[in-house]
């Protein structure tokens, strides 16, 4: 039997090597070389073409190469009854936590503003609150948002988190629902977005919500580009309402050269690298789930397409 690998950003060779280690009998075929459609038992995908998963009669599992599944649920015609999984893994969580902490600390210690002052040859001290005086908000309290919130609480920040359903995280004030969103925004001097992109969260970072942050707040968007209305952020940076932004994800990737964010002195742009799936851990997970579905068991980390994450 075979695995169909579809990704325009990941190297099939790295994944072939990883699967060779955990399930040598599994042939890895890289899109568009599907071969005999009947052989495909599992598809491992990142932004697959719209109809690529149809007409695979023995497909038992569709695995996302990432933690997010918006790339799959929104744009692909999915065969009915085939479980879809997302990637949940300690290494992925550790990388995301590192990235989020790095940039929360940078915004807390006003690094984007100091780099701007340096470019302007200006020696000037900015007011600096202590971590325990700084209010950080995390949108999304799932695997990644929850781990990030816990780590930031260890630094002494006043951390709050926002989720769809009520959640409890030690040391973190939690909010949910429409009223909860208003309350977390009103208190967050540094806002980190770690939501999944769904019809409910599309454009959640807009002029009203970002405008509801305290003056001088910073935004760190690590969820998806579709969460942010980019011109609204640009306008709020221009007016001075927001002091800094860190953007790892964009509506259009690679970020077009004409985007004002490339050259903005207080915006940090990274090319969707906050956390990256490791082929070894990824292959191990897919093999374990393939073994489960072969036995008729549900796979781990299955998503609910009707909810969108
Ligand atoms: P997760 O475990 O599924 O957690 C999602 C969280 O968002 C949950 O707390 C969920 O609430 C909350 N949520 C969902 N819809 C909501 C809504 N409408 N209103 C309020 N809260 C809502 O996901 P995860 O593993 O933490 O990953 C989160 C996202 O990070 C991914 O979907 C992906 O887009 C992004 N990501 C980015 C990178 C990168 O490199 N930039 C890497 C990996 C992942 P409940 O707790 O109530 O379910
Ligand atoms: C990356 O963006 C992921 O969803 O894992």
Report on this model:
- The chain has 309 residues and is an alpha/beta fold.
- It is 31% helix and 17% strand.
- The chain has a seven-stranded parallel beta sheet with strand order 8-7-6-9-10-11-12, sandwiched between helices. Strands 2-1-3-4-5 form a five-stranded parallel beta sheet, with helices on one face.
- The chain is elongated, with a radius of gyration of 21 Å.
- It starts with a strand and ends in a 15-residue tail after the last helix.
Keywords:
five-stranded parallel sheet, 2 domains, 309 residues, 12 strands, Rossmann fold, alpha/beta, 31% helix, seven-stranded parallel sheet, 9 helices, binds glyoxylic acid, binds NADP nicotinamide-adenine-dinucleotide phosphate
Briefly characterize the structure.
With 309 residues, the protein is an alpha/beta fold.
How does the SSE layout of this entry go?
Elements: E1 2-6, H1 12-22, E2 27-30, E3 40-45, E4 61-64, H2 70-73, E5 84-85, H3 90-108, H4 111-119, E6 135-139, H5 143-154, E7 158-163, E8 173-176, H6 177-187, E9 190-193, H7 207-211, E10 217-221, H8 230-238, E11 242-247, E12 267-269, H9 279-294
Helix pairs in contact: 1-9, 3-5
Bound molecules: NADP nicotinamide-adenine-dinucleotide phosphate and glyoxylic acid (GLV).
Mean model confidence by pLDDT: 97
> What is the 3D shape?
elongated
* CATH class identity of the largest domain: Alpha Beta
Largest sheet: 7 strands, parallel
Bound molecules: NADP nicotinamide-adenine-dinucleotide phosphate, glyoxylic acid
Query: Can you list the strand order of the major beta sheet?
Result: 8-7-6-9-10-11-12
Q: Compute the gyration radius: what is it?
A: 21 Å
Termini separation (Å)?
28 Å
Structural class: alpha/beta
Q: Domains counted in the coordinates: how many?
A: 2
Strand content: 15-25%
């Amino acid at each position: 039997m075979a695995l169909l690998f579809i990704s325009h950003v990941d190297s099939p060779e790295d994944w072939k090597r990883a699967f060779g280690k955990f399930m040598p009998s599994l042939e890895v075929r890289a899109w568009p070389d599907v071969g005999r459609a009947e052989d495909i038992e599992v598809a491992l995908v990142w932004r697959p073409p719209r109809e690529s998963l149809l007409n695979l009669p023995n497909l038992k599992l569709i695995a996302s190469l990432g933690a997010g599944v918006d790339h799959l649920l929104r744009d692909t015609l999915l065969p009915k009854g085939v479980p879809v999984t997302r990637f949940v893994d300690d290494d992925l969580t550790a990388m995301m936590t590192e990235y989020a902490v790095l940039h929360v600390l940078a915004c807390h210690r006003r690094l984007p503003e100091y780099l701007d002052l340096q470019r302007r040859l200006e020696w000037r001290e900015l007011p600096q609150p202590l971590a325990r005086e700084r209010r950080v908000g995390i949108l999304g309290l799932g695997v990644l948002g929850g781990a990030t919130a816990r780590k930031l609480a260890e630094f002494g920040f006043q951390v709050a988190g926002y989720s769809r359903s009520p959640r409890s995280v030690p040391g973190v004030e939690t909010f949910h629902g429409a009223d909860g969103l208003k309350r977390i925004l009103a208190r967050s001097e540094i806002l980190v977005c770690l939501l999944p992109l769904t019809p409910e969260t599309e454009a959640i970072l807009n002029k009203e919500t970002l405008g509801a942050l305290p003056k001088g707040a910073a935004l760190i968007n690590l969820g998806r580009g579709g969460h942010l209305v980019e011109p609204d952020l640009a306008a709020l940076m221009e007016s001075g309402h927001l002091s800094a932004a860190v953007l790892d994800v964009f509506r259009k990737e690679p970020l077009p050269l004409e985007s004002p964010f490339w050259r903005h002195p207080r915006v940090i742009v990274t090319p969707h690298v906050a956390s990256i799936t490791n082929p070894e851990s990824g292959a191990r997970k897919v093999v374990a789930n393939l073994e489960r579905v072969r036995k008729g068991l549900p796979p781990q980390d299955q998503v609910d397409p009707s909810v969108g994450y």
